[in-house]
Amino acid sequence: MNLFDLIPKISKHITTENEGELLVIVFPRFRSKFMQKYFVPKNKSATIRVRLEKHGTAVLNLIDGKRTVHEIAEALAEHFNNEKNYEYRIAAYIKQLQQQDFVELLRS
Question: Where does 3-101 sit in CATH, by number?
Fold first, then answer.
């Protein structure tokens, strides 16, 4: 199946927060309650925060579990000023989010 036909959905262990006009991805340092209790260093947060830049924020804002990668790319054409191959940049970014376990890719 083509990546553009898949539907990205934000993983259950991920939350997002607004920081001005940008998004921050927030996820637990460890998913297991046991690991969180015994392995989070003192004076460290139990969560990790990743601040996205403007393009990443634009992409993540459109990931709703309903739109395909192709539909997200179409919706962002103007945002990316219709740059050459911008669709592949978006697809590569979504694939990277999947590899980091921030999103799941579902069949449409």
Answer: 3.90.930
